[in-house]
Amino acid sequence: MAALTRPSEATYVCHEHVKVDTLDHRDHTFCGVMFPIEIKQNLPVETLKIESLAVRGRLGPITVWASGIDPQNEEDNVNEQVQHFGRTWSKIYQHTHFPSTSQYVELKLLPVVLKPGETYMFYIHSSHPSDQAIVYDNARNRSIIYQDDAIRINVGRAHLSTTPFGDTSIWGYPGAWRDYRAFVGQVNYGIIYKLWSPQNHLTFGSDFDQMVVVLLLCQRRHESPMSILPDDCIYYILNMCGYNWSAPCVKGRKILAYRKPFKTDNSKKEKKAITRRAKEKSFLRKIFSR
Fold it and tell me: Tens of pLDDT along 176-232?
């Protein structure tokens, strides 16, 4: 029965604990920093949860705001909202911290749940009455500050006012924002991955695709022990496989695809490869359409 009721997403959160250590050139300190976090679409991710940020400096009264949260979504736990820069900002953290100029201090947020392709703005602010509250850097790369397989942190801006979203700098002059600044700190997040099914097969990448083809081909051979299993059992096995269980392995793939070499030119090899891929796709379409 379980084979007929395959779950579509993981029921657990895989804590990557990346703790994004962005480059720290110790360029600047001031009252706040605003930056976007983008969720990539190259992994079969169902949702990604930003759980905490970490910063250093003189700190003091810290608030963290996020833009893009739906106030109707109970999971977002919104407790205060303001309008600024044409966006709705929701407060997701508030606490007073002792100074920590060398070690990062973790700010445990009300979890912010994101989906692949979404970009959220985060704004960390301190009301400490000095220009040494939060460390940040100049943006040496004018687009991307940090990226891994799941997220991308882009260039942001610094804030020079002790009032959240204030337009007057700490010296009393207008113009409290500085562009092309980089977040310095850590990001901690967890991921809920999609589980394989024929419907989302294409989101799992070419290596997983090869694994699916090999498993189904084995099941189709009468001399294989797997031939006694029905399609639903094979689907259930694949449903329980992690997306990275078929991680690229050059040597392994060469052994898997090994054939006695023929003396042919490159054009013939390319034609054979195209024909083989077309047959594999046709084979999968026939299987999944049942």
Answer: 999 999 999 999 998 888 888 888 888 888 888 888 988 899 988 888 888 898 888
pLDDT for position 241: 87
The 3-state secondary structure of the chain, one letter per residue: CHHHCCCCECCCCEECCCCCCCCCCCCEEECEEEEEEEECCCCCEEEEEEEEEEEEECCEEEEEEEECCCCCCHHHCCCCEEEECCEEEEEEEEEEECCEEEEEEEEEEEEEEECCCCEEEEEEEECCCCCCCEEEEECCCCCEEEECCCEEEECEEEECCCCCCCCECCCCCECCEEEEEEECCEEEEEEEEECCCHHHHHHHHHHHHHHHHHHHHHHHCCCCHHHHCCHHHHHHHHHCCCHHHHCCCHHHHHHHCCCCCCCCCHHHHHHHHHHHHHHHHHHHHHHHCC
**Can you read off the two tokens belonging to residue 86?**
């044409």
CA distance 84 to 228: 63
- CA dist 6 and 112 (Å) reads 27
At residue 56, the pLDDT reads 93
Please name which of 14, 15, 73, 68 lies closest in space to residue 37, comparing C-alpha atoms.
68
Task: Determine contact, residues 133/170, Cβ cutoff 8 Å.
Answer: no
Per-residue pLDDT of 58-81, as tens digits, reads 999 999 999 876 544 444 444 677
Its pTM stands at 0.74
